[in-house]
Amino acid sequence: PFATALAPVPGSPEHVVASMGFFGSQSVRLVDLTDPGSPSYTLLAGGAADLAGGDGQLDSAFGNVGGLAWLGNGDLIIVDNANPFSGGPGNTIFRARDLNGDGDFLDVVAASPEVAPLLGVIPGVGFDFNGAQCEVAPDGTLYVVTSDGFGTGEVIRITDPAGTPAGTIFRGGLDFGGGLAVRDGAVWAGDVDDSFAFARIWRLEDLNSDGDAEDAGEAVVITSSLPNVFDLAFANDGRLHVTSAIDFFSASELVAIDPAAGDPSQPLFRPGSGVVMGDVVPADEAAPFAPHGAPGQRLLMVGDNFGGTNALFILEPAPAGGLDLQDPLYAVTSVSPAGIGAGEFGGALAVSPVSPELAFAPLGVFGDQQLWRFDLADPAYAGYRLVADGFEDTGADGRLDNGFGNVAGLAVFPTGEVVIVDNSPSFQTLTGDTVFLARDLNGDGDFLDVVAASPEVAPLVGSIPGAVNFAGVQAEIGPDGAVYIVTSDGGGQGEVIRIADPLGTPDATIFYQGGIDFGSGLAWLAGGASPELIIGDVDAAFFPARLRRLVDLNSDGDAMDPGEETTLPNTLPGVYDLAAGPGNTLWATQFGELDEIDPSTGAPVRAFAFPRPTPGFNALADLTFTSLAGEFTPGSASRVSLLTATNDFAGVSFLHVITPSEFSTTPVAGHEVYR
After folding, report:
1. Mean pLDDT, all residues of the chain
2. How far apart are CA 534 and CA 544, in angstroms?
3. How many other CB atoms sit within 10 Å of the CB of residue 391?
């Protein structure tokens, strides 16, 4: 499989060298892309030592090649940050030179290996040296960024790398380096903060010609609004292209940055679920670049899905008529209510089926959450109200005030009652302190009171016969009026619980029990003769996630009989929630990505990209539609909105109201400038 380093061959845009293999055993190969559908591969370098008994072949393998760069004389620089990991520069930066003219770097020629350390000691650099990407400047100077962490990272400057190299620190004080690019006399370096919450991109310039960028005004952060940075590359449109990701395991994206303004664009390309992008390089420095014009300069990008099926992406400018990022498909309003203190959105959302402008969401921190109602008819989204704060009156004042632990599921009945699933007060129990029914007994518009000795929030059910454990998460009201809850018990012990007659005499039974690990999301779709319940099921290893289709074919109140459960063939990296959209469509939140899903296969149909409101990790949580009565399509007159929430796990979270833009008239499948 492809690893994470790429370098186009100068003057030959159909060829690129790439690191290939697994961590601890990698090689460098030449990839011929003349026929992209059937590329060929030639081994160029297999290590820096002859381990096979003195046969003159370098076969020790590389550990983890993080950087590749060609020198003007045809030498290849190889940066290996795992040979050994945290070794000095002599074990990390290699120069490959074809001493016998056979077109590779595999041999020992006259006792000289074709791959050898470029240099040993760099003043000021110790053995905390994890070299990452490298780049050669127009004057032949080699720059290497390190990934040492915690303020010990550097950009190294190596002069005369093809002759008598000398290394110095160009800029210190970085954390985890992520990419290098050189243009207009400056070095651009990615730098992932050691908190892993955000990344910086630096513009480094030696203004006083003293060989470093350590002086005042020589290092400027152009942006710190990306969650992380894997690599940087300038394309011929003048923009800095950056591979980034919401987290380290999924939702990768390619964005472009105006080097003067520093603001990242909306995502230009997403390779698909579970793929983490590595290096990005332009394949032809001389070709024009026009994202909406005729084919021009291509970008090459490598992607890693941590499962051995890595890929090399060839990105070509989209044909005319592609998405113009200045004309967004959807309008997004991100709401962070003022006056609620340090509250953050939890992991549940629900909308009234008869008043779709009224949305319910938990706010607070884990262990102390409340239920709030939002009036989406208010353009400023300022109409929010506390409606539930627990199920016990701790102060004996007629007010329920003990709070909720972790509200993971909500469902609203047409008559106004709300089901609340709280999976933390007695985590994995079968008692009645997990699933609650909230009723407004005194007509004051909330569920905060004890009325005639009856609390407005009370357990809906007690024990559930046959349930193994119970860590309830999302809830939905089915077409039959029953409440369905998926559990997140782990170890194959998850279930789907069906609670019949929830507003009368509730009766809880197991609807499905068959190896669910961590249930995540429910959505009812119109099937053939019977409605279909789609559930998310995250693997016990938290990667990947399955979608299961459950149908009660014989109307016996469960989906446990032969043929009633189908595991969809496609897997996703992770699922937080599912929602049925207008037109019987299926939508999913997974890590930082919102996707429309093909309900027959489980494969994403299109990814939905919108601006992250805060830097760092923003995990998309529950989602729900405000109405299913209209279309959720750009250019339509429908006011159907999609609600979702993000939480960066640092006290900052948002409710997102996503509405088709009124001024966008051409629906476009996908959100990609590149294809």
Report:
1. 80
2. 17
3. 24
Give the per-residue pLDDT at 187. 97
**Which amino acid belongs to residue 523?**
A
Q: Would you state the structure tokens that stand for residue 576, as one six-digit string?
A: 């937080």
How many Cβ atoms from other residues are within 10 Å of residue 88's Cβ? 18
Q: Which two tokens stand for residue 367?
A: 């262990």
Chain centre distance of CA 396: 46
Name residues whose C-beta falls within 8 Å of residue 347's C-beta, 6 or more positions apart in sequence.
Answer: 362, 406, 407, 408, 473, 576, 577, 621, 622, 645, 647
Q: What is the pLDDT of residues 202-221, one digit of tens each?
A: 999 999 999 999 999 999 99
Of 118-132, 152-166, 406-420, where does mean pLDDT reach its minimum? 118-132
Residue identified by tokens 């357990």 is 459
Any idea how long the chain is?
675
Class of domain 331-660: mainly beta
The CA dihedral of 315, 321, 324, 328, to the nearest 10 degrees, is -120
Alpha carbon 72 to its chain centroid, in Å, reads 38
Residue 348 has, within 13 A of its CA and on its CB side, a CA count of: 33
Common-topology check for domains 2-326 and 331-660? yes
Cα separations (Å) of 643 from 577, 578, 637, 649, 674?
A: 12, 12, 18, 19, 27
Measured between alpha carbons, how far is 538 from 555 in angstroms, rounded to an integer?
27
pLDDT, tens digit, 9 for 90 and up, residues 219-236: 999 999 888 888 898 887
Within 8 A by CB and 6+ apart from 541, the residues are none
One-letter amino acid for residue 563 of the chain: G
Long-range pairs for 371-376: beta carbons < 8 A, 24 or more residues apart: 371/404, 371/407, 371/410, 371/418, 371/420, 371/438, 371/447, 372/337, 372/340, 374/335, 374/337, 374/655, 376/626, 376/641, 376/657
CA dist., res. 14 & res. 36, Å (int): 9
SS3 125: coil
DSSP letter for each residue of 367-401: TEEEEEEEETTSTT---EEEEE--S--TTSSSB--
d(CA 499, CA 436): 12
**DSSP code of 564?**
S
The residue ranges of every structural domain in the chain are 2-326, 331-660
For the chain, the C-alpha Rg in angstroms (whole number) is 28
Whether residue 99 contacts residue 115, with contact meaning beta carbons closer than 8 Å, is answered with no
HEC string of 305-317 equals CCCCCCEEEEECE
- The rounded distance, in Å, linking the Cα atoms of 299 and 289 is 10
pLDDT band, residue 290 (cuts 50/70/90): very low
List, in sequence order, every beta strand (DSSP E) within 147-271. 153-159, 166-174, 176-183, 186-192, 199-204, 219-226, 231-234, 240-245, 252-257
Element holding 32 (H helix, E strand): strand 25-32
User: Distance between CA 425 and CA 428 in Å, rounded?
Assistant: 9
Between strands 585-590 and 454-455, the pairing is: unpaired
What is the amino acid identity at position 329?
A: L
For domain 2-326, say whether CATH 2.120.10.30 is its number: yes
Model's pTM, two decimal places? Answer: 0.65
Question: Please, what is the Cα angle at 433 between 430 and 434, to 5 degrees?
Answer: 70
Contact 33, 39 (CB under 8 A): yes
CA–CA gap between residue 328 and residue 664 (Å, rounded): 7
pLDDT surpassing 90 at residue 499:
yes
Cross-strand bridge partners of residue 304: 276
The residues, ordered by sequence, that sit 6+ positions from 54 with a Cβ below 8 Å of its Cβ are none
For residue 244, give the nearest of 267, 222, 262 by alpha carbon. 267
Question: What is the C-alpha separation between 272 and 268, in angstroms, rounded?
Answer: 13
Q: SS3 letters for 150-183?
A: CCCEEEEEEECCCCCCEEEEEEEEECEEEEEEEE
**pLDDT band for position 316 (50/70/90)?**
low
380's tokens: 């400023």
